[in-house]
């Protein structure tokens, strides 16, 4: 989630992404044995996920140089810069607003009505609260309570170059 990106990391990465005319969606750090994995997700201001691979490579080089110059990551690491993809992360409130009417998967930080995982239709998002319909039941989930969320892409023949 965008709000979970450590401030120092966001301050280092976001200006680079913004300078390329894109928006920072998320930064994930998978620590443990070296090499660590650092994944930076970027998107266009339109939120359409159409980020060319060349732009991701340029951003990756700049972030890597910045990390190395500032000794940001204390061990060997692999840096990935990518667009959100088909099952795009819903990391910011505007990502939820753009996903209205879509099927989503949400995992909460703590149980709501006895569960932490919700897969259903995002019926509404207003004032920092999502309304998700799961098996005919409406669940209200505050944005602040969301640990992870993503849109579920429904593949069609058109996705594979065939007629719909």
Name its key features:
about 160 residues, about 25% helix, three-stranded mixed sheet, alpha+beta, about 40% strand, five-stranded antiparallel sheet, 3 helices
Order of strands across the main sheet? 7-6-5-4-8
Summed up, the helix count is 3
- Average pLDDT level: 91
Our estimate of the beta-strand percent is 35-45%
Termini separation? 34 Å
The run of helices and strands is HEEHEHEEEEE
- Number of beta-strand segments: 8
Shape field: globular
What is the C-alpha radius of gyration, as a whole number of Å? 17 Å
Sheet with the most strands, sense and barrel status: 5 strands, antiparallel
**Percent of residues in helical segments?**
10-25%
Query: Structural class given helices, strands, pairing?
Result: alpha+beta
> Low-confidence parts lasting 5 or more residues at pLDDT below 50?
none
What does this structure look like?
The protein has 164 residues and is an alpha+beta fold. It is built from 3 helices and 8 strands, in the order H-E-E-H-E-H-E-E-E-E-E. Helix 1 crosses helix 2. The radius of gyration is 17 Å and the shape is globular. The mean pLDDT is 91.
Helices and strands in order:
Elements: H1 7-19, E1 23-30, E2 36-43, H2 53-70, E3 77-82, H3 93-98, E4 103-112, E5 115-126, E6 129-134, E7 137-142, E8 146-151
Parallel strand pairs: 2-3
Antiparallel strand pairs: 1-2, 4-5, 4-8, 5-6, 6-7
Helix pairs in contact: 1-2
């Amino acid at each position: 989630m965008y709000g979970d990106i450590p401030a120092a990391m966001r301050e280092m990465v976001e200006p680079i992404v913004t300078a390329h005319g894109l928006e920072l969606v998320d930064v994930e750090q998978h620590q443990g044995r070296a090499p660590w994995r650092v994944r930076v997700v970027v998107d266009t201001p339109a939120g359409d996920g159409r980020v060319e691979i060349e732009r991701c490579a340029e951003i990756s080089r700049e972030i890597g140089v910045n990390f190395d110059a500032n000794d940001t990551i204390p061990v060997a690491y692999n840096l990935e810069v990518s667009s959100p993809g088909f099952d795009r992360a819903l990391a910011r409130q505007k990502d939820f607003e753009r996903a209205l009417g879509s099927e989503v998967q949400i995992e909460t930080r703590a149980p709501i009505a006895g569960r932490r995982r919700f897969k259903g239709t995002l019926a509404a998002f207003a004032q920092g609260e999502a309304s998700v319909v799961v098996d005919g039941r409406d669940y209200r989930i505050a944005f602040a309570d969301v640990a992870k969320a993503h849109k579920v892409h429904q593949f069609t023949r058109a996705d594979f170059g065939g007629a719909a």
